[in-house]
Amino acid sequence: MFPHPMTLDEIKHALLASYEREGGINHLDGSNLPSDESVNRLASDFMHLLFPGFFEQSPLTKKDVPALTAMRLESIYTRLTADIEKALSFASDPAPAANASRLAMELLASMPDVRKIVQTDVQAAYQGDPAARSTEEIILAYPCVLVISLQRIAHVLYKLGVPILPRMITEYAHERTGADIHPGAQIGNHFFIDHCTGVVIGETAQIGNHVKMYQGVTLGAKSFEVDNDGNPIKGVKRHPNIDDHVTIYSHATILGGDTKIGAHSIIGANVWLLESIPANSIAYYKGDNLVVRSRRKTEKAVESRTASEMQAWDWVI
Q: How far from each other are the two terminal CA atoms of the chain, in whole angstroms?
């Protein structure tokens, strides 16, 4: 027998009681927070600002661009300032309104530089994927363009010290693409993620120039330092460094703040790495063995470990 259904009034009282008991997930009588709807609209508008003419309902002519850009900047500035002010108020900033206006202007002033590096990402995608027929196809249909472009904008806000909002912007891209790139990650030019889905890049990761990776790659942490109360210590280096011209194939996992992948190296599919490898290396599985050797065939292997040995190490992503 099913219990007698509750009335709406009974459900209301049950929820009110829950709000009192489980208070840690309430935000009542506090400062107003940025809303998903507002931030998602900002993220979409940033893409229009970066790529004029690509996401319009009707064709955009060059003579229309100045007026449209002025209108967009004014609209974005007003809404961005309001959301930054909410985020600063939450963080107990002493002058949230004045600082929000300044920070919004600093972000918008960075947009030409963001466009310059985003153009290299589009070029990398075109050069890195033989299936690509045009840069237009890449901008319109490749998920890496959305996730990398918005991460670069969120990274500016992150460096400016804006709380909450950078993560909300990258989460919009995460929801749309399946790739989760923390706004704190430092990423060089000509960055390409082929297929994109399932990629995770942590806050303190540093990625050089001309890096290419495939779906499912994780740049994560081995473990977390904790304080005397068992809480994670914030702000420490936890994620790996990837040098220039590195290619990382699908579902490879690279962990640790001390881990560095040397320039011009190749990480094979499904490889699990916890330690640094030198430049011009290749890492791959040969049977059950993980082999890391020089890409120069005349040099002997520098490391070979069995898969069972690697799995025996108890690391945490």
A: 45
